[in-house]
Amino acid sequence: MAGTLHAKSVANAARSLWDELPGLRVELLNGTIIVSPVPDGPHQLTRSGIPVYVVVDRRHDEVQVLTDPVVGDYRTRSVYRRGQSFGPPASVGIQFELSVARVLDGGDG
How far is CA 82 from the centre of its chain? Predict the structure, then answer.
């Protein structure tokens, strides 16, 4: 139980840093929080005009879809979990849906 509580408090601290330090990478590796500049992350993609950035986070069992780029960041972050589907926003001009489970598992079916 103590290990679970510690893991949750470290994860909460990492999430707080993520919120407080936009534009930086916040990683949680073996119980250690590492904050560093993102070499090729969303802030670079916004400069290139990439309208949608999808993050497949297998460690947290979720898919994040970042949209509405502004200089250095995305204004909208939507999180999808197993049992849900996601697709690009209408502004992209195409419509499709992908199963979160299929993307996380890398499956063909």
Answer: 15
Side chain identity at 50, as an amino acid letter? I
Indicate the residue type of 11: A
* 57-88 tens-digit pLDDT: 888 899 999 898 887 788 999 999 999 999 88
Residue at 41: amino acid letter: G
pLDDT tens, position by position, 9-38: 777 777 777 777 766 777 766 667 777 766
Distant-in-sequence, close-in-space partners of 89: CB < 8 Å, separation ≥ 6: 51, 52, 67
Q: Say if residues 56 and 66 touch (Cβ distance below 8 Å).
A: no
Residue 80 CB coordination number (10 Å): 19
DSSP assigned state of 28 = E
Residue recorded with tokens 């992908």: 98
C-alpha 106/C-alpha 33 separation (Å) is: 28
Ramachandran bin of 38, using left for φ above 0, alpha for ψ from -120 to 50, beta for the remaining angles: beta
3-class state of residue 77 by DSSP: strand
